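Case study 2.
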Amino acid sequence: MSDSFHKHPIIFYNVENLFDTIDDVSLQGNEEFTPEGTKLWSEERYQEKLHKLAEALVLVNGSTPLAFGMAEIENRKVVEDLIKTGPLAQRNYKIVHFDSEDRRGMDCAFVYDAGFIFSEIDTRHIIHVEDEPYFRTRDIIYLKARIQNQFIVHFFVNHWPSRREGISESESRRKAAATTLRREIDKILNTEKNANILVMGDFNDTPDNYSIRNILRALGQHEQQKGDLINLLVEEHKKGEGTTVHMREWDVFDQLIVSQGLLQGQSGLKIKENNAFIARNKKLVFTFPDGGQKPSATYGGDTYHGGYSDHLPVYLNLIPK
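Prediction:
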């Protein structure tokens, strides 16, 4: 391609209930996202959502992404529809997706641009709440890929169990997810100590929660020790910034976490500016009359607002060392 891969960001985006309009009877709650459902989810609204998400992915830093991970997608078809929409259709995007056991059909996906000689080596999905056999949740997607035929990167896409049942009631499930993810990362580091590892997701925990700091061992850039990961959005959290809002308070639930090898460029790739960012474009944010803000969401309950998502995207750029 004529442009360099490092000009295009890698993004994670919780896209807020990207459902098609068809009622999948195998799922619970799926019927609300149909024309007859409580959300009156029509084909027109679905198409509007696709165009808003395609727009948002370009608004992140003004170019189409090199790759992006997503949470809250219903199935592979909605991702296929998205990558045919607007400026995304210009790229040769490929999809990594697995049907998870989440009862609502909420899956993760990873999309990458094969036009940048971005090729798969290995993909699989990881089940993580092992001690609750009757609990169903989203899987972790793993992709080992090669960029420009020389740089190997290990990607993990996450959407950890929500706080809907309360923080304390659901915390053990996020700890289980963190334990499983850390185990998978250690397997890589044990054989490839300088591996390029990029972990992304909606963790439903902030950077200072136990699951992130103590189990995953993802710390700030100036506090990590050997074997620790680096959470590139720790400083944003400390400043009171966020990716989503609950009770008018911002939280950094969506995070980008990397290995020391990737941050330090030990395997030929590094992070541009040694940092990741929250895409707080004014179009993606709704401002209340009193000046308070939140992400411009598609819905508030069953009320249609026609926004983008109830989360903001997070992103970084990879560059050759």
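The chain has a mean pLDDT of 91.
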